[in-house]
Specification:
Length: about 500
């Protein structure tokens, strides 16, 4: 092996030192790079279920701070799981929502056909809960991503109208009582229970159907009898013509032919009288059957309407009190499909002035929910997501009208009362429960989306018998820029497109 020249040894050593120095410098720069510049490690998409028999979900609370969803039934929490909310600039809005539509296998029309399984929509401009990847931090475009398995489990348990609360901080339901929520009036049992009305409605449907069939049969028989009568009348006329002709002929009416013609005419006359009586009886029977059918149909319609109204009366109502507008709003789900596709129709009574003590003082945002029944009526909880004032003081400051107090006294579980500084969001429409967002929190994932198209609000002619309004189209509210309480303007209408339903 030849010996290396001294200069070549020095050159190789010099290059090795330079390479080592470069490696050390690069390593030091990585070590000194701020942690925020590195992607956080992904966390396992784990979820937890309470160790007991779980009931129907009533409230889902999402904490933006903790990136966690907790779902509650009438007793306590039942499910917990990590989530991923909106990134900076597309933040998931903090506020009060409800599930308005469910779709098992949804594909985004905005984000490259992205798969969003077990989607539960909470606004019509595209905010929803759905299964998705969880990197361990906020990473969505405004929706709430949940573990895939958890999203499926929750999807199979919820119903349209389930309350969804998105809170900037951690929040939990706390037991709550207040005179306004327990007016001292016993729950009134309906005059006729729903099961009885349902049975009566089914019986009335059968009775109406049987009466209709009898009317059809009677009308058919009357028509047949009338046709037979008309045929005999023609034969009677022909027999009379033949007899008259024989009388004028040489044979005469006493001839053999004349006698036969007379006998035939008399026989037809007897048959004709019998046919007239039969036709009259059949016509009378058909008339009675028709009237009976009308009566049975009116009875069916009346009982069906009563059953429908009784069922609707058992639905929970939602009440919203806005300090911004000094108004109280009522709403309930009809469970009738929306005529323009997607979601269900909500009835609403929207113009109810309300007195709020110290109206210029913030009141916070509080959600009072009837979790179930107890010996005095309803058992309530409260969730506060903006505590400008505590929940008791907030409710103390509101003078709820007497007729609304009556509705609360006879309300059913899952009824809710929201008291808030905020006005209703313009995303509140005839296919939603209440939508409100906290104005002091980021709303990038909300305001960057196209608003739901505008249509007219409820009209007096659409008022139902119990004082509710039925929205005809996308009724929307938006406060005037001046911020004056009770001042509204309509937002410009926008055409409906598939992109508006994207995420």
């Amino acid at each position: 092996m030849r010996a290396l020249p001294f200069l070549e040894i020095i050159d190789r050593w010099h290059r090795a030192v330079l390479i080592l120095a470069t490696i050390l410098i690069f390593g030091a720069s990585l070590a000194n790079t701020p942690a925020i510049a590195r992607a956080p490690r992904a966390v396992p998409a784990a979820d937890t279920t309470a160790h007991r028999d779980v009931g129907e979900p009533i409230i889902a609370i999402i904490s933006i701070k903790s990136q966690q969803i907790t779902v509650y039934d009438a007793i306590d929490w039942i499910y917990r799981a990590p989530v991923s909310t909106g990134v900076k600039g597309r933040e998931t809005p903090a506020g009060i929502f409800a599930v308005v539509e469910k779709e098992k296998d949804h594909r985004s029309t905005m984000y490259d056909d992205a798969w969003m399984p077990h989607m539960q929509r909470i606004t019509w401009n595209g905010i929803a809960l759905h299964g998705g990847p969880l990197p361990g931090y906020a990473a969505s475009h405004g929706c709430v991503r949940m573990p895939y398995g958890f999203a499926e489990k929750l999807f199979n348990k919820t119903r349209i109208g389930m309350r969804v609360i998105i809170s900037p901080q951690d929040a939990v339901p706390e037991d709550f009582s207040h005179p306004a929520l327990t007016p001292g009036k016993a729950l009134e049992a309906p005059a006729t229970d729903l099961a009885t009305l349902a049975r009566d409605a089914m019986a009335a449907v059968k009775e109406a159907d049987d009466a209709r069939k009898l009317a059809v049969t009677a009308a058919r028989e009357a028509a047949s009898a009338t046709a037979s009568l008309q045929k005999l009348e023609k034969l009677k006329v022909q027999a009379g013509i033949e007899l008259a002709s024989l009388n004028k002929s040489a044979q005469g009416e006493n001839s053999d032919r004349g006698l036969k013609a007379r006998a035939k005419s008399e026989e037809i006359g007897i048959l004709l009288e019998k046919a007239r009586a039969d036709a009259m009886a059949k016509l009378d029977e058909a008339t009675r059957a028709k009237e009976n059918s009308k009566t049975a149909e009116l009875k069916r319609a009346s009982i069906s309407k009563a059953a429908s109204e009784q069922k609707l009366a058992g639905e929970p109502i939602s009440i919203y009190v806005s300090r911004a507008t000094q108004k109280l709003y009522l709403r309930r789900n009809t469970h009738k499909p929306a005529p323009d596709g997607g979601g269900e129709v909500f009835e609403a009574k929207i113009v109810v002035p309300v007195n709020i003590k110290d109206p210029n003082k913030p009141i916070g945002t509080h959600v009072f929910t009837a979790m179930g029944r107890n010996e005095t009526g309803l058992r309530w909880s409260v969730v506060t997501i903006s505590n400008s004032d505590d929940a008791k003081n907030a409710l103390d400051r509101v003078t709820i009208p007497a007729d609304i107090i009556g509705r609360i006294a006879t309300a059913s579980p899952r009824t809710s009362i929201i008291v808030s500084d905020e006005p209703l969001s313009s995303e509140t429409n005839y296919r939603t429960e209440f939508v409100t967002v906290l104005s002091n929190q980021p709303q990038g994932g909300f305001i960057t989306r196209k608003p739901t198209p505008n249509t007219r609000m409820a009209e007096d002619k659409s008022r139902t018998e119990d004082g509710f309004f039925l929205f005809r189209g996308n009724g929307r509210l938006q406060t005037d820029p001046s911020g004056l309480p009770g001042t509204y303007r309509a937002r410009p209408g926008l055409g409906v497109s598939e992109r508006e339903r994207a995420w």
